[in-house]
Amino acid sequence: MTVSRRFSLGLGHSTYAAVFGVVSLGIILNALLVVACLPFLVLLMTTDPARSWPLLALAAPLCAPALTAAAWTFRVHGTTVSGAAEGGVVRTFLAGYRATWRRALPLGALVTAFVTVALVDVRMLAETPAAVYVVPLLLVATVLACGVAVVAAVAIAEAPEARLRDILRASLFLAVTRGHLTIVSLVVLAAQAVLFTAMPALALGLTASASLYLVWANGRFTLRPVLSTADSDDVTHTQAAPAGAR
């Protein structure tokens, strides 16, 4: 028996199925993200952002539920043997969209409003004497807001029933205390944005889901203290419940 034959037998059908499942998950998820973010993408690709930024700011929050739905899909795919393929990637994505949009849409609106106001202030104050002091603070606040938004989006996908205020509070604390993880997520998203400006088709059709998966995994690790506490509380409540109530 040749080495290649042994290697192929060692992999087995389940390994090939798993690889195919991951590839199909990424391709389908990329298409779903494009459809869900279509208004924002059309404006971004057909207009001059320097002039159309008010419209972009209005359309940007519509992408937030798509991002939380993608995180939901990653979670379902990672917690079952056959992953999201059991119910279909599309069905899982839509279920995540329905479960998270009530929290994700306000989150997207808040972050977009904050970042828009901060960047407009940077533009207005750039040539004033106060720019030396104010502009760096505004830029740091903008980066922090983006980092909190990334962690909060993952938190919404993990606990869609939680209040947005509680999610933002926990996300702010963890995004700061685990700043190295937040920076990694922002670097991944920045790299994806740079790739989009250079090769939009490649960024949307191939690397979007891969980048979001890295951000989701990183955000879930950032949220581990909160998620571990929630899981422990669920176990305690289950054990304390009467036998007939389980």
UniProtKB/TrEMBL annotation:
<feature type="transmembrane region" description="Helical">
    <location>
        <begin position="194"/>
        <end position="216"/>
    </location>
</feature>
<feature type="transmembrane region" description="Helical">
    <location>
        <begin position="104"/>
        <end position="126"/>
    </location>
</feature>
<protein>
    <submittedName>
        <fullName>Ferredoxin-NADPH reductase</fullName>
    </submittedName>
</protein>
<keyword id="KW-1133">Transmembrane helix</keyword>
<keyword id="KW-0812">Transmembrane</keyword>
<keyword id="KW-0472">Membrane</keyword>
<feature type="transmembrane region" description="Helical">
    <location>
        <begin position="132"/>
        <end position="155"/>
    </location>
</feature>
<feature type="transmembrane region" description="Helical">
    <location>
        <begin position="16"/>
        <end position="43"/>
    </location>
</feature>
<feature type="transmembrane region" description="Helical">
    <location>
        <begin position="55"/>
        <end position="74"/>
    </location>
</feature>
<feature type="transmembrane region" description="Helical">
    <location>
        <begin position="167"/>
        <end position="188"/>
    </location>
</feature>
